[in-house]
TrEMBL record, chain A:
Domain Rab-GAP TBC residue range list: 228-449
Chain ranges passing through the membrane: none
Identification of the protein by name: TBC1 domain family member 19
UniProt xrefs under PROSITE patterns: TBC_RABGAP
Coiled coil ranges: none
InterPro entries for the chain: Rab-GAP-TBC_dom (IPR000195), Rab-GAP_TBC_sf (IPR035969), TBC1D19 (IPR042507)
UniProt xrefs under Pfam families: RabGAP-TBC
Gene transcribed to yield this protein: TBC1D19
Annotated organism of origin: Ficedula albicollis (Collared flycatcher)
From TrEMBL, chain B:
Superkingdom in the source lineage: Eukaryota
Gene giving rise to this polypeptide: NICN1
Protein name: Nicolin 1, tubulin polyglutamylase complex subunit
InterPro entries documented for this protein: Nicolin-1
Cellular component GO terms, alphabetical: nucleoplasm
Length: 503, 241
C-alpha cells in the first residue's frame, strides 16, 4: 500500500509555492488539508493491526512465525501430509499441477468469465485435499514434549480433546475485553429489533456511523463496529477498517490476476470448483453468488502478494521446481502462486462477503485482506490467541468451567463437544448461521481484531441448547440437536453467556 | 536449607564469551540467598524428575547456574527461555572492604506470566544494565537462579545465553542508526522574514533526503506479481524439503 501513497504525495509536492525553509511545516499542512494525513494514519493503523509486536532482534524469523518449536514441527508435518496428498492425486489422475492453457481454451475461458458456474466439468475424480475433521485429528494429537503428558488422568491432563497448555482467557477477562457487548450498551442485533423504538439506540448509532465514514478514520471505525454495523453502512465501514480503497492500481492488479488465471491452468482450480459445487452452490443463501466465488478464488490462487502473510503465519508455502529442475533455486516456484492450498469449505470464507460487495475487484481485495488478517489462523497450527488451537482450548475451557455437568455428560456418552463445534469455528460460522447474524458476528471479529468471539459463541450455543443436550445418549443425537443454527440470534446468546450467566 | 553437592568442572557452553569454561561450586552447601535469607517455597522434592540436564545445581526445585563472568562490565544479557518462570541474577563484585560479595541485580523477573501455560515459555529476552538493581561493573562471577513453580514441565532452563560488554551491541535489526540521530529538536518557525538559518534548513533537507532514500530502497523489494520463471509455470510435483 505504501508505494502508491508515497508516489502520489511526491507528485503533489512538486509545486512552486512550497518554500525550502518552511518545507517541513508545509508538508505537514499539506498532508492535513489534502486528507493524506488520515490515509497515512489509516495505513499505519492497518499495519499495526496485522503485524505482530516487534520482538527481540536475536529472534530468528521462524520465531516470529511461531515461537513454540513443537508447534512449528507439527505444522511442518501437517503440511507434508497435505503435499503428499496433492502429489498422489496428481500422479493418480495424471494431471500436472500447473500448465499453460492452450490459446483456444484461453479464449473460451475469457468469454465465459462471468458465468463460470454454468460450466459442468467432470470433477468426480477430484477429492478435497482435507476436510476440517482431518485437521481436528491432527490437533487432538498435538503434544508438548516438555509437558507431563501422563496416561493416568490427573490435574495435568485436559478433559477435552486439546492437550496443549496454551493460555486462554476466562470469563472475567473476556468480559473486560468485550466490554462493549455489555448488557447496558446498545447493540445492533439486539436493540434494533422491531419491539425497540429506534430513537433509543438505532437512529443515533446510524448517525454516528455516518460521521465515522465522513471522517474516514480506520481506528474510529474499528471501535464503532463493536456495537454492530448498520446494513447500509457495513460495506464502507469494513472497507475503511481493512484499509481498502479500490484505487485504479488495485483494479489493474485484479485484472492482471484475471489474465494469470486465463493463461495458466492449475490443479488447484479444480479443487476450488469442486469445493464451490459441494458447499456454496448447495447453500440456500449463497448459491446465487457462485460465479463471483470463482472470480475471487481463482484470482486469489494467483496472487503472490498473499505470500507476505507467511512472515507472521506459522505456515510455509509449498514449493516446487519447474521443468523438473529439482533443487535449482532459479527454477523454484511456489505452488499455488499464493501458497495457500484450499480445503473443503474454503469457499465459505468468501460467500458472505458477496452480500456486501458486487464489484469483483473490491470483493476480491476485501476477501484477501480478511484472509491475511484472520482466516489463515483457522487452518494452521500455532499458539497465537486467535489461532484455531487456542480457540478450541478456549471453547473447551469455557464449557467445562461454566457448564460442567453438560461437559461431563457429553464426554461420558462419547460426544466430546469439540467434535461438533470444530467445524463451526474453522469456517467462522459461515454456512451455519443465517447471513444477517453471521455478518453481525463478523462485525465483532473486525471490531476486536480477534477470532476469540468464535469460541465464545460456540460455547454460548451449547449453553443455549443445554437442556436438550443433557437428554441425548449418543454423538449422533447430540449432532442432531446442534445441526440447525439458522434460527439463532447471535448477539443475545453472546451477551447472556458473557454477562448474564451466574458464575 | 538443604543443598545438593555438585561435582566441580561442569560447564554449559555460553556463546559470545571470552572463556567457555565455567566453574561451579564444589562440595560446599550453596545457599540461594545471602544476607537477607529468604527460603524459596518448597514446590517439589529432589526426585520430582524435573531437571535441566547435567548443567545445574538443584535446590528446592529451583536451578542455579553459576559462571565466571567473561566481562567485568555487563551491558546486556540476551538469552532464550525454555520454560523458566522466574529469573533472578546475582553478581559477585568487590565490596567496600575489598572482599567480594554477592549482590542481587535482578530479582524474580517474570518470564512466564502464567507458569502452567505456554506464554513466554520459548521467548527471547534481553536484560540491559539500566534494568538492573545494582551496578554491574567489576563483576567477577554471576549466578542465574531459575525458578519454575509449576510441576507440569519436565525440564526448564535458559538457552543461548550471551553477555555483552558496553560498546558491543546485540544484533540490531536493519534500521540505520543514523536515521534516528538526524532529528533535531522541534523549533518554531521564525516569523520575522529573515534569511532562514542554513544549518537548520540543511538538517531538515538532509532528513527528508534520508527518508526518501529509505523508501526507495524498500521499493526495490516491492512485489511485481510474477510467479512464473520466464513465462513458464509448468509444475508437476511438489517438493517436500
Amino acid at each position: 500500500m505504501c508505494f502508491p501513497t508515497w508516489y502520489s504525495m511526491e507528485v503533489s509536492l512538486h509545486k512552486p509555492e512550497i518554500k525550502l525553509e518552511s518545507l517541513k511545516e508545509d508538508i505537514k499542512d499539506f498532508l492535513k488539508t489534502s486528507g493524506w494525513e488520515k490515509k497515512l494514519q489509516n495505513a499505519v493503523y492497518s499495519e499495526l493491526n496485522v503485524f505482530p509486536m516487534p520482538c527481540h532482534p536475536a529472534a530468528p524469523p521462524e520465531h516470529i512465525k511461531e515461537p513454540l518449536a513443537y508447534m512449528r514441527k507439527a505444522q511442518g508435518s501437517w503440511e507434508k501430509r497435505i503435499l503428499k496428498s496433492l502429489n498422489s492425486m496428481c500422479t493418480e489422475l495424471n494431471i500436472p499441477l500447473a500448465q499453460k492453457r492452450p490459446v483456444n481454451e484461453q479464449k473460451e475461458l475469457l468469454n465465459k468469465w462471468n458465468e463460470m458456474g454454468t460450466d459442468e466439468p467432470d470433477l468426480s475424480l477430484f477429492r478435497p485435499v482435507y476436510a476440517p475433521k482431518d485437521f481436528l485429528e491432527v490437533l487432538m494429537n498435538l503434544r508438548n514434549p516438555n509437558y507431563e503428558n501422563g496416561e493416568q488422568p490427573s490435574f495435568k491432563n485436559h478433559l477435552g480433546l486439546i492437550q496443549v497448555p496454551l493460555k486462554v482467557k476466562d470469563i472475567p477477562e473476556l468480559k473486560e475485553d468485550f466490554s462493549e457487548l455489555g448488557l447496558n450498551i446498545g447493540q445492533l442485533g439486539i436493540d434494533d429489533s422491531a419491539q425497540v423504538p429506534p430513537e433509543l439506540f438505532e437512529n443515533e448509532h446510524i448517525h454516528v456511523g455516518q460521521k465515522v465514514l465522513a471522517e474516514q478514520d480506520s481506528a474510529a471505525a474499528q471501535q464503532y463496529v463493536r456495537q454492530g454495523c448498520p446494513t447500509a453502512l457495513r460495506a464502507d465501514l469494513w472497507a475503511l477498517i481493512l484499509n481498502i480503497s479500490n484505487q485504479p492500481e488495485d483494479i489493474l492488479y485484479y485484472e492482471q490476476l484475471k489474465s494469470n488465471v486465463i493463461q495458466h491452468d492449475l490443479l488447484v482450480d479444480s479443487l476450488i470448483y469442486k469445493d464451490v459445487k459441494l458447499t456454496a452452490s448447495n447453500d440456500d443463501y449463497y448459491f446465487v453468488f457462485e460465479d463471483y466465488l470463482y472470480q475471487v478464488l481463482l484470482c486469489f490462487s494467483r496472487d503472490t502478494s498473499v505470500l507476505e502473510h507467511f512472515a507472521y503465519s506459522s505456515a510455509t508455502p509449498p514449493k516446487s521446481y519447474i521443468q523438473g529442475k529439482l533443487g535449482m533455486e532459479e527454477y523454484a516456484v511456489f505452488y499455488p502462486p499464493n501458497g495457500v492450498i484450499p480445503f473443503h469449505g474454503f469457499s465459505m470464507y468468501v460467500a458472505p462477503l458477496c452480500f456486501l460487495y458486487h464489484e469483483p475487484s473490491k470483493l476480491y481485495q476485501i476477501f484477501r485482506e480478511m484472509y491475511v488478517r484472520f482466516f489463515f489462523r483457522l487452518h494452521s497450527i500455532s499458539s497465537h490467541p486467535s489461532g484455531i488451537v487456542s480457540l478450541c482450548l478456549l471453547f473447551e475451557t469455557l464449557l467445562q468451567t461454566h457448564l460442567p455437568q453438560l461437559f461431563y455428560h457429553l464426554r461420558e456418552i462419547g460426544a466430546q463437544p469439540l467434535r461438533i463445534s470444530f467445524k463451526w469455528m474453522v469456517r467462522a460460522f459461515s454456512g451455519y448461521l443465517a447471513t444477517d447474524q453471521l455478518l453481525l458476528l463478523w462485525d465483532r471479529i473486525l471490531g476486536y481484531n480477534s477470532l476469540e468471539i468464535l469460541a465464545v459463541l460456540a460455547a454460548a450455543v451449547f449453553a443455549f441448547r443445554a437442556v436438550n443436550l443433557m437428554e441425548v445418549t449418543s454423538l449422533a443425537a447430540a449432532e442432531a440437536v446442534l445441526a440447525d443454527l439458522s434460527t439463532l440470534k447471535v448477539m443475545p446468546l453472546l451477551q447472556i453467556f458473557l454477562f448474564a450467566t451466574v458464575t | 536449607m538443604r543443598s545438593v553437592p555438585v561435582p566441580a568442572g561442569w560447564g554449559m557452553p555460553v556463546r559470545g564469551c571470552a572463556s567457555a569454561v565455567l566453574v561451579l561450586y564444589g562440595d560446599v552447601p550453596v545457599p540461594v540467598w545471602e544476607g537477607d535469607c529468604r527460603c524459596p517455597s518448597q514446590c517439589c522434592g529432589e526426585d520430582a524428575g524435573l531437571g535441566i540436564g547435567a548443567d545445574a545445581v538443584w535446590i528446592w526445585g529451583d536451578a542455579v547456574v553459576g559462571l565466571r563472568s567473561p566481562v567485568p562490565q555487563v551491558q546486556e544479557i540476551v538469552f532464550r527461555n525454555f520454560y523458566t518462570a522466574f529469573l533472578s541474577v546475582r553478581v559477585q563484585r568487590p565490596g567496600p572492604s575489598g572482599s567480594r560479595r554477592w549482590v542481587t541485580c535482578l530479582r524474580d523477573l517474570c518470564l512466564m506470566p502464567c507458569p502452567h501455560t505456554e506464554e513466554g515459555s520459548q521467548d527471547y529476552f534481553c536484560l540491559r544494565r539500566h534494568q538492573m538493581l545494582c551496578d554491574v561493573d567489576q563483576v567477577t562471577a554471576m549466578r542465574f537462579i531459575l525458578r519454575q513453580p509449576s510441576p507440569v514441565w519436565l525440564h526448564f532452563t535458559i538457552e543461548d545465553l550471551q553477555i555483552f560488554p558496553p560498546g558491543q551491541k546485540s544484533p540490531q535489526k536493519d534500521f540505520p542508526s543514523w536515521l534516528s540521530q538526524l532529528t533535531p529538536p522541534e523549533q518554531p518557525v521564525s516569523l520575522h522574514g529573515e534569511l532562514p538559518d542554513p544549518e537548520k534548513v540543511s538538517t531538515e533537507v538532509q532528513q527528508m533526503w534520508v527518508l526518501t532514500e529509505v523508501i526507495r530502497a524498500r521499493q526495490a523489494a516491492a512485489r511485481i506479481g510474477r510467479f512464473d520463471v520466464d513465462g513458464c509455470y509448468d509444475v508437476n510435483l511438489l517438493s517436500y524439503t
